[in-house]
C-alpha cells in the first residue's frame, strides 16, 4: 500500500512539473511575440513620423502602396489636400498605424 502511494505521489508530482514547464514555455513565447509586436510598432511609428513631414508634392507622388524599409505604406487622397497614411504589415497586409494629414 505504501509503495502504491509513493508511486501515485511521484506521478502527480511529475504531472505538475510538466504543467509548469509547459506554462513557462508558453510565457516565454508570449513575451517574445509581444516584443516583436513592439519593435514592429516602433518601426511603423518612425515611418509614419517621416511620412507626416512630406510635402504636398511628395505625398501626391507617393499615392498608392509602396514599400519603404521593411514596411508598406499606403498613401490615399480622399479629398484634395487631405492624405490618409496607413502603415501596413508586409506579411498580412493589416494596418499597423494610420493617420491623416492636411496639406494646404
Task: Name some characteristics of this structure.
single chain, 104 residues, alpha+beta, 4-stranded antiparallel β-sheet, 54% helix
Topology:
Blueprint: H1 2-51, H2 56-61, E1 64-68, E2 71-79, E3 82-88, E4 95-102
Antiparallel strand pairs: 1-2, 2-3, 3-4
Protein architecture, described:
The protein is an alpha+beta fold. It has one domain (2-102). The chain contains 2 helices and 4 strands; from the N terminus they run ααββββ. It has a 4-stranded antiparallel sheet with strand order 1-2-3-4, covered by helices on one side. The longest helix has 50 residues, at 2-51. The chain is rod-shaped and about 85 Å long. The mean pLDDT is 94.
Query: Over all CA atoms, what is the radius of gyration?
Result: 25 Å
Number of helices, where a helix is a run of at least 4 consecutive DSSP H or I residues: 2
Q: Determine the fraction of residues in helical runs and give it as a percent range.
A: 40-55%
Identify low-pLDDT runs: none
Largest sheet: 4 strands, antiparallel
Number of strands: 4
Count of folded domains: 1
Outline: rod-shaped
Oligomeric grouping of the chains: single chain
Q: DSSP strand (E) fraction?
A: 25-35%
- Give the H and E element order: HHEEEE
Distance between the termini: 88 Å
Query: Order of strands across the widest beta sheet?
Result: 1-2-3-4
Structural class: alpha+beta
Mean pLDDT: 94
